[in-house]
Amino acid sequence: MVAYQHFVALSHSSDPDQRAQAARMVADAYLNHDGPADENAALYASLLGFLDDSSVKVRAALAFGLLYSRDAPRVIMLALVRDAPVIARAVVQHSPVLLEVDLVRVARDAPMRVVEALACRDQISERLAKAILDRGGEGVVLGILKRGDVTVPGPVLARVAEQFGHVAAVRGALLDRDALPGLSRLALVRQITEDLSACSLVSGAIQPGRIERLMRDGVDGATSRIGEKEAAGGGDGFARALLGEERINARLLLHAVINGQGLFFAQCLAVVSGMPLEKIFTLLENGVRAALDALFRQCGMDGAQSSLLARLVLFARSCDLSSDWASRHYVVGALIEELIIEHDGDIPESLEEIFHYLDEQNLVLARAAARGVMPRFSQTVGDERVLPVADQELSNAALGRQLERQAQMRVPQVTGARGQLALPAA
């Protein structure tokens, strides 16, 4: 126990360490006080007096004494919030007596170092998160976005994406947020493709043409996946925005069908054609070839393109394209074969780009479908089944010479025919 006279002497000492000791003493006494009211008032007055002390050490001692208590006077903690950053940072991060409205004001007006500490509070409401993110600051924004316990509404995430979409770390944290609007998500994907294309490591390792195809296919895939999620939510804003940017084309529609994203495919057709979505679903599920062809013509496609998409829809009805790589490969392969047969190998100019796209997708899907086939096959057969091996192994040099000779030979061109592709039955 310390006599009040001794406490007063410490409070007025010229030594900051003694005044800091007195500040801690009075903070502890006030928080644990259960005596008469006049004593409580004297303790409260002493707390207020230490706010005016010229030494940061003394005010810091006062703040530390009150920091974690729910009984600390709010008016004193608010004064400490406006104190030196070393004090304010601790108070805004830990004090439980500060109200949400107090913290929102800190997010708007305090120095950025203090806002950084505010972003580390154990609990951050949606309103406070919005205020912190609106304030900006790359480190603060990243810290909030990485916290799974903090809810951030979609419109706020959209603004953050627009402001910090060029920062790779922030971009990754945004893409991990389910509430990120589809259009913002797609914009980030496009930014990623631009950054990858410009990266010297990528451009030095991959041929330019292949980079372009990979990036284009990546954007198509992201667009259709995002569109499927947005369509499942019941809105058509994403598809309408794509239409306004003239990004709904035959290639994107093909990609959506091939990968089983039927909701997005139907919604694109609805916004392009102006027909009700329910009627689009009915046609896609039950419409005959002529009705499908008419639908795609109404969407602005020429005869060859509308016929191709109609045929693709008919193929897709008999397969599960949402998750089965083998089914996707079968559908695309069958479609390519029919196009070759129908046009006798002379693909119309209007289908040239789409045909090349189908060929590219066919290779991608074939690789995906082939993964794991041989290991599974090897586990199902006994030792009596062996892999035939050539009698003479070729060295790398000899193999290279043989390939060069093969390349110089004139090989007759073989046209496609239905019987040449071993396809599973539809």
Explain what this protein looks like in three dimensions.
With 426 residues, the protein is mainly α. Helix content is 68%, strand content 0%. It is elongated, with a radius of gyration of 34 Å.
Shape: elongated
How many strands? 0
The main pleated sheet reads as: none
Distance between the termini: 91 Å
Number of discrete helical segments: 25
Order of helices and strands: HHHHHHHHHHHHHHHHHHHHHHHHH
SS-based structural class?
mainly alpha
The amount of helix comes to 55-70%
Low-confidence stretches: 411-426
Mean pLDDT: 85
Q: What oligomerization state is this entry in? A: single chain
| Beta-strand content | under 5%
Cα-atom radius of gyration:
34 Å
Task: Spell out the blueprint of helices and strands.
Blueprint: H1 4-11, H2 16-31, H3 37-50, H4 56-66, H5 74-81, H6 85-94, H7 100-109, H8 112-118, H9 126-135, H10 138-145, H11 154-164, H12 168-175, H13 182-198, H14 200-205, H15 208-232, H16 237-244, H17 250-258, H18 262-273, H19 277-286, H20 289-298, H21 303-317, H22 325-342, H23 352-370, H24 373-380, H25 396-408
Helix pairs in contact: 1-2, 2-3, 2-4, 4-6, 6-8, 7-8, 7-9, 10-12, 11-13, 13-15, 15-17, 15-18, 17-21, 18-19, 20-21, 21-22, 22-23
Keywords:
single chain, about 425 residues, mainly alpha, 25 helices, elongated, disordered C terminus
